[in-house]
Each structure stands twice: as C-alpha cells, then as structure tokens.
Write a structure and sequence with these properties.
single chain, mainly beta, two-stranded antiparallel sheet, about 35% strand
Length: about 90
Amino acid sequence: MLYRYFGKIGKDEEEIIPISVTLLDFTGDIRDAKGAMVVNLMIRSRTTKITFFMIDVNGSYNLLLGRDCIHSNQYIPSSLHQRLAF
C-alpha cells in the first residue's frame, strides 16, 4: 500500500504497526517499509483481513494484492480488464 493512500481509507497514523522490513520497488531500488497495516478488504460480498506493507514511493496503484491473498480467496486476476473475479 502506498503510504500516501492510507489516510484516504480513513486510517490514522497510530494504526501503523512498526516493522523492520526492506523491500525492492519496481525499479529495483531498496526501500524500507514505513510499517504495516491490517485492513478489512471487501471485494463484492467477501471481506478478508489483510496485512499490507506501507511504502513511501510514487506509483500508479493504491495497493497490491500478493499471490497468497489472491489464491487463498480464489480470486482470478485479469490484467486486461484490471479486475478481480471469483
């Protein structure tokens, strides 16, 4: 999840869980995560509790779902339509 996005979903700074995780961004640069946040993500009628790492970068996305989340919830991602089906 982009760091600038968490305020838009009604979360407060106090809800960020401090962590020490290093990530690679899409350009291959090393970034430290700002923290983690547990979010109830609702897609259609299904609500799932998901932990997102927060990173302070510019991106064309708001959040990314990992492979484990996609498979455990039986979502079918479509790159063409930029949607999830289940």
